[in-house]
């Protein structure tokens, strides 16, 4: 069997549009060409620096910054400002993000948490009706109620303060120019508007921006200008994050969110005035010759990816290979075990205690012993990791839908930055202010606070950060960055990132092939297999092992860079519009 994707979105010509990129070898054993029906993205090689993100215009802005001697931090600011314009449905200054950073001078990896916070006026019952029943998901999402305090502008400023080399205001120029002159609506943005236009139409600023004069979704290729966003960026460029969190922009957001008649929110100026990016130690799993480092709580990303790989490393995946149903059974069951712990234990540890032993070698060995090769687990429950202080908690009940965007950057000094950035749902809360969309991140909390009398770790509390699945990752080898990777996709992020790591570290695929290979993942029991790919042929065997299988679109948006033998090798997900550029 050749294991390959058969459908995709973007042509190779986009990837090789700059002579500054070196196109490396195409995907080999897993090449879509093997399936005969797809244009594949090619591995990009460079020597000095590299940037990968979800939209060519954003990558071009980051590339120009790096080419001008800017740092990874500088490049992020430029990429994020453009992404918020050209891929507004996924991330932007109305949302939040997590950054994993390797500081080449200090030879140290650290993380920055710019997750949105629950408003100080929010109560744990924000998504509960008076009779205690919980809101339907989209009734909670659409409107002001779901909007948390945005963290992205504070992150841009924080990262620039840590290691910005170019002037802050210069980093906004590409986005301001594009917003002023206009950009062509991309196929992906046009498709997203079309799918979401009914809810976009509910809010005047949103409707005016994303729909045409007759109320129809903007078509692909439409020249779209955003003078309000240009003005907002000009203000941030001249006043810094201070100008976002204090003053007119914050006041406008608060007023907009609170004045939505049928679903108002409770965000206040105090939330903006007290918002802080938190630097936290990276969460790392020792893995063979590597350390897989990522974002700890309030994200479940690094812990859950870490548990999956910490369990699967007890099996010989390398010799089973990627076309083995048994390998995927082991990965799927490891993932189910990890998701059981995630649901029970993982949340914002500034608010709830969490076991300390979730990545203990001995604990993961006992979890691995539950797996029988060739036979799916008949039941899965949270384990009993080491606690400093035990508490009884109920399993989580939050719902998560795919969204979000990932950026991987390595600069000429060897600093590496892995950032996953989001406004949560596609188009977030659908509410716009000052030319950008506001997040619906609060719906990443469990809507219920208790289950059968026991508290749920990821329950909503004022000031708390909702649990995330975002898994920006930096793999270290000999304490130096070796791999920079991440993906959007809601709770499927964890499966996408695990797949890319296993494909490269165990199966020796280059970064592009590891990203392109079909997605297969299991979170809560059902085995999701990517539609239109040769992985569908594994379905019968997985079913015979005891899994329920669902064949569906699995739109990861992996962007990754491998650093090896003094060179950079980058890959961008063929399922989305991203590219890689390097020099
Ligand atoms: N809202 C997506 C995530 O944080 O996982």
From TrEMBL:
Keywords: Acyltransferase, Glutathione biosynthesis, Hydrolase, Signal, Transferase, Zymogen. This enzyme consists of two polypeptide chains, which are synthesized in precursor form from a single polypeptide. Pathway: Sulfur metabolism; glutathione metabolism. It comes from the Bacteria. Cleaved by autocatalysis into a large and a small subunit. It catalyses: glutathione + H2O = L-cysteinylglycine + L-glutamate; an S-substituted glutathione + H2O = an S-substituted L-cysteinylglycine + L-glutamate; an N-terminal (5-L-glutamyl)-[peptide] + an alpha-amino acid = 5-L-glutamyl amino acid + an N-terminal L-alpha-aminoacyl-[peptide]. This is Glutathione hydrolase proenzyme. InterPro entries: GGT_bact, GGT_lsub, GGT_peptidase, GGT_ssub_C, Ntn_hydrolases_N. GO terms for molecular function: glutathione hydrolase activity; leukotriene C4 gamma-glutamyl transferase activity.
